[in-house]
Amino acid sequence: MASSKDSFPYTPQLRSLMQQAGIPSFAALAQQAGVSTWQIDQLRRGSVLKLRVGAIARLGQALNTSIGDLVATFSGSPPVARPDLQSTSKAARSESLTPLQNTPLQNTTLQKEYERLQRQVEQQTTEAVQSCQRAALLQLEPLLEKLPVFLNVIEQNPDFPARQLVPHLRPLERLLTDWDVTTIAPIGSEAGYDPQKHELMEASRTAVQPGDRIRVRFAGYYWGDRLLFRAKVSPVQPNDTHPS
Predict the structure, then answer these.
(1) Strand, helix or coil for residue 106
(2) Is 28 exposed, middle or buried (0-12, 13-18, 19+ CB in 10 A)?
(3) Among 44, 99, 122, 197, which residue's CB has the most CB atoms within a 10 Å radius?
(4) Can you give the pLDDT of all 244 residues of the chain as single tens digits?
(5) If we measure between CA atoms, which residue out of 196, 236, 202 comes closest to residue 216?
(6) Phi, psi dihedral angles at 197 (to 5 degrees)
(7) β-strand 198-200 against 231-235: which pairing, if any?
């Protein structure tokens, strides 16, 4: 007795792709694509849109076909059997063949779904990268705060014993550039106090008002257009003419 799964309408299309890809069985396809037999059955049913984007992408890779082609092939109405060759009605044959053709509405729906899947994959990738970067930057905060200070002191003092460390710190600077991480202001520079991006050091918190002159003591950073953490600053004293 034949299995009920043998009647899945898109089984021939899937077997054809499997044959071209050299995959001998549905179990082998499931193993190669890292999906379940239930997900394979959804292709055979023509219900590919029930699957997650990642599963569709892995199936497409295993079958050597694009996500768009996979969605177009295994979604929509089930294929219709060929017309009865004994029928002499040309009109009947024409009518029974009509469902085999995608209508403009079906094509538009498939295209929109494909574009939605593409956007979803891109968004998930971007969010994953940003999440990893954010976690790394939070762990590096103590080093990032003092890195410009270390580099400034070392470069201003040629005989400083730690000068040989500078080349080893440059890759970190390049990494921050690649991640679009920038300092708020150079160490020792002056600016008007802005509590949104400046953090007063403990001893001077009650002495400075917004707009007062301050000097940057420890670096603060932007991550793209977002504030990562504020620069630590102190007020500029009347007789304070040189950065320290």
Answers:
(1) helix
(2) middle
(3) 44
(4) 445 556 788 899 999 999 999 999 999 998 888 889 898 998 898 888 888 777 888 888 899 988 778 888 887 544 444 344 344 344 444 444 444 455 566 667 777 777 777 777 777 777 777 777 777 777 677 777 777 777 777 777 767 666 566 666 677 777 788 888 898 988 889 999 999 999 998 765 567 888 999 999 888 889 888 888 899 998 987 666 554 4
(5) 236
(6) -130, -5
(7) parallel
Tokens of 39: 């997900």
| Two tokens, residue 80 | 């219709």
d(CA 136, CA 157): 31
| Residues 6 or more apart whose Cβ sits within 8 Å of residue 209 | 193
Q: Which two tokens stand for residue 63?
A: 């079958």
pTM for the structure as a whole: 0.39
Nearest to 219 by CA among 190, 171, 191, 186: 186
For residue 94, count CB atoms less than 10 angstroms from its CB and return exposed for 0-12, middle for 13-18, buried for 19 or more: exposed
From the centroid of its chain, how far is CA 157?
43
- Tell me if 220 sits within 8 A of 199, measured CB to CB: yes
CA distance 76 to 95: 18
